[in-house]
Amino acid sequence: MDVIFLQSLEELIQTLEQKYDVFKSKGGYLNERQKSIKDFIEKTQPVKLADLSNAMPEISINTLKKDLQYMKTEQILESIGKNRGTVYILKKNK
User: Fold this and answer.
1) Which residues contact 45 (CB under 8 A, 6 or more apart)?
2) What is the DSSP string of the chain?
3) What is the pTM of this model?
4) Cβ-count burial of 20 within 10 angstroms (0-12 exposed, 13-18 middle, 19+ buried)?
5) What are 47's strand-pairing partners?
6) Taking Cα atoms as reference points, which of 25, 45, 28, 31 lies closest to residue 92?
7) Which contacts (CB < 8 Å, 24+ apart) does range 17-21 have?
8) How far apart are CA 22 and CA 26, in angstroms?
């Protein structure tokens, strides 16, 4: 009985690893909030953090910063400039 369970578990792990590989090749996962941010940037780029904050007052500045950083890491966005002058645009290959 234990052998069957372990074999089933191993098959499940292999299946999940294959699905994860497909998922990673398509880019990172975006939650609904991040999709909203991406859509806003797509329509109005280039966008500053202040623009996002004004357009989405229900989202804290810290959450916006975290989401922007995540989308940069996942190569969905790129940033131009530094500090308050930073603007965000969508990467052309996404």
Assistant:
1) 87, 88, 89, 90
2) -HHHHHHHHHHHHHHHHHHHHHHHHT-----HHHHHHHHHHHHH-SB-HHHHHHH-TTS-HHHHHHHHHHHHHTTSEEEESSGGG-EEEE-TT-
3) 0.68
4) exposed
5) 88
6) 45
7) none
8) 7
Neighbours of 47 (CB within 10 A): 21
AA identity, residue 66: K
- Please give the chain's pLDDT, 94 residues, in tens: 688 999 999 999 999 988 777 666 655 688 999 999 999 999 998 999 999 999 999 999 999 999 999 999 888 999 999 888 899 999 876 4
| Amino acid residing at 62 | N
Point out which residues pair with 88 in neighbouring strands. 47, 79
Burial of 37 (0-12, 13-18, 19+ CB in 10 A): buried
The span from the CA of 46 to the CA of 25, in Å, is: 27
